[in-house]
Amino acid sequence: MSYQVSSSPTESQALYLDPAIRDWVLIPIMVVMVLVGVFRDQVTVLLSGSGPKKPVLKAIRETRVLVRGATLRSYGNHIPPSSFYSRKSYLANAYEKGYYLKNPIAMNQTVNPMDPQGMEMMMEGMKKNFAMIIPQTVIMGWVNFFFSGFVLIKMPFPLTLRFKSMLQRGVETSDMDVTWVSSLSWYFLNLFGLRSIFSLLLGEDNAADGMRDMTAMPQMGASATGQPQNYHKLHLAEKENLELTPHAWELEDVEYRLLAQYGKRPRISITETNERNEGSSSVSEYKGKGRKKGGK
Amino acid sequence: MATQTPQASYVPENIVYNSKKITFIRSSMSAITGSAAGILGLTGYYGFIFYGITSVFTSFLIWAVKTQAKPSLYFRTGSDVWTEGVFGGLFSYVLFWTLLYGIVH
């Protein structure tokens, strides 16, 4: 390898690197990361395909009825008032009486934390998460072991000196530009940059995403220690939410909107709407206006 | 109770689908423009400026061709077309930029 290092700090240092470095380090690390990512995604598909045991019908109903309540709350304005109120009263009654609970007898008892199905699902999730983190750490160790002690590539953008110790691990010169980095930093660069490539290759929601695992780890730790939910309390809370939901039918003045669209009536704003509702004399006012404009 | 002329309500699945499309377009463009920047030998701030220019150009293409200059039909606000997915594309841009720069120069 031939070196030609200029020592003046203003010029950028030019190092001539052995092309063997490029062939045997740069490309292989990238290829390995891509392949491992694809592999992990497929393994996840395999693992979850054989899948958790089919949950019992009643367990599904418990959760889905909560979703039904939430849907009613958010889209209630699309249905006429009578339908909305009938649905609301039916659901509120069902929540209170516990029609949808898995075992109605246990309504007022504390939940058994060793509920077997809940535990199984938690274990599945944790197993999957750990299976994801392992390849990350393995590759990092592999890169560190084999590819340390030399600079790999020049970063095209300037970095501050604080990054030097992180990016140039293993190379002990003190005045080399921070732009020359070691292979570990190439690993990190790949880690961040390949995420979008994975979404291109594998479609959305793929499991090859190392970053998502790392951010999900602390959240998973917090929730896995919680007990399986007490559905009775959840149902009661949903009932409260439902009772508080107002209803404003979006199609209430649809006749006026239709007529306004075809130009038979001028478009009305809110204040005119209120006036129209309060006084019937204003109706004839509008009719007059329409006629004056000329036939359409 | 009469309501006012309603604001348009959006179907969430459609918005998500549109966002995915935009992310796809941006990731592809970032990879390509990153390679271009590496081959061109851009360094430092020029590289980031180049990314800014190409992402604005990409947004313009999306706006003109895909949404036919009416982005409010497809997204919650019209300006989503210009800003969505830019940061995610930055990382792939830097990756390909570094790769091609290292290979070529």
From TrEMBL, chain A:
SMART domains (alphabetical): DUF106 (SM01415)
Pfam families: EMC3_TMCO1
Region Disordered, annotated ranges: 269-296
GO terms (BP aspect): protein folding in endoplasmic reticulum
Compartments, as annotated in UniProt: Membrane
GO cellular component, one term: EMC complex
Transmembrane stretches, start-end: 20-39, 130-153
Its membrane topology: Multi-pass membrane protein
Record keywords, A-Z: Membrane, Transmembrane, Transmembrane helix
InterPro entries: EMC3, EMC3/TMCO1
Family note: Belongs to the EMC3 family.
Function according to Swiss-Prot or TrEMBL: The EMC seems to be required for efficient folding of proteins in the endoplasmic reticulum (ER).
Descriptive protein name: ER membrane protein complex subunit 3
Organism: Acaulospora morrowiae
From TrEMBL, chain B:
GO cellular component, one term: EMC complex
Keyword Metal-binding: no
Subcellular location(s) of the protein: Endoplasmic reticulum membrane
Transmembrane segments: 86-104
Keyword list, A-Z: Endoplasmic reticulum, Membrane, Transmembrane, Transmembrane helix
InterPro entries assigned: Emc6 (IPR008504), EMC6-like (IPR029008)
Predominant location: endoplasmic reticulum
Presence of the UniProt keyword Membrane in the record: yes
One Gene Ontology biological process: protein folding in endoplasmic reticulum
Membrane topology: Multi-pass membrane protein
Pfam families linked to this entry: EMC6
Similarity comment text for this entry: Belongs to the EMC6 family.
PANTHER family named among the record's database cross-references: ER MEMBRANE PROTEIN COMPLEX SUBUNIT 6
Name of the protein in its database record: ER membrane protein complex subunit 6
Source organism per UniProt: Acaulospora morrowiae
